[in-house]
Amino acid sequence: MGLLYATHAVVPIFKAQGVGHVVNLSSVGGRTTRAGMGVYSATKWGVNAISEALRLEVHEHNIRVTIIEPGLVATEFVDNISDPAAKQAIKARFKALTPLQPEDIARAIAYAVTQPPHVNVNEILLRPTQQE
Q1: pLDDT score recorded for residue 8
Q2: Looking at residue 75, what is its pLDDT?
Q3: Which residues lie below 8 Å from residue 105, measured CB to CB, with a gap of 6+?
Q4: What's the CA gap between 44 and 1, in Å, rounded?
Q5: What is residue 125's DSSP assignment?
Q6: How distant, in Å, are the alpha carbons of 19, 70, 85 from that of 26?
Q7: DSSP secondary structure string, 22-61?
Q8: List of domains in the chain
Q9: Are 68 and 124 in contact (CB under 8 A)?
Q10: For each successive 10 residues of the chain (132 residues), what is the average pLDDT?
């Protein structure tokens, strides 16, 4: 719901300004899914759908919308998994590669928001090099 509340709060301000940029964080899970990840993927597919619909609704107001879709990122996400089997599986995936760092995501966002006004970077999908 946070994405909806934040969007509802900023879009009127952006319309009044005549310019703005909404950046929503999704996930590779918004494009693909894995066994046991259906609910997570569904929420990320929702982020993508809401973002694309928003882009279509606000582009005439010079409001840009970008979706950032990272793969595995080194965050506390794994620590919050309550299912022991799922936690073990994701830890094994992290050990098999060098995950993205939060700074990598920040650079992707900076790239999107620093493009000239006539450029809207709709999506950035980034994964660790070793992630399938």
Answers
A1: 97
A2: 86
A3: 25, 68, 70, 73, 126
A4: 12
A5: E
A6: 23, 7, 24
A7: EEEE--GGGT---TT-HHHHHHHHHHHHHHHHHHHHHGGG
A8: 2-126 (3.40.50.720)
A9: yes
A10: 96 98 95 86 96 98 98 86 83 87 97 97 95 86
How distant is the alpha carbon of residue 13 from its chain centre?
A: 22
What are the Cα distances from residue 61, in Å, to 39, 120, 121, 123?
A: 34, 13, 16, 19
Q: Which amino acid is located at 126 in the chain?
A: L
**Structure token pair of residue 97:** 């590669």
> What is the per-residue pLDDT for 121?
98
Cα(6)–Cα(93) distance, integer angstroms = 32
What residues are annotated to the active site? Answer: 40
Structure tokens at 128: 């660790």
pLDDT at position 84:
85
Query: How many residues make up the chain in this entry?
Result: 132
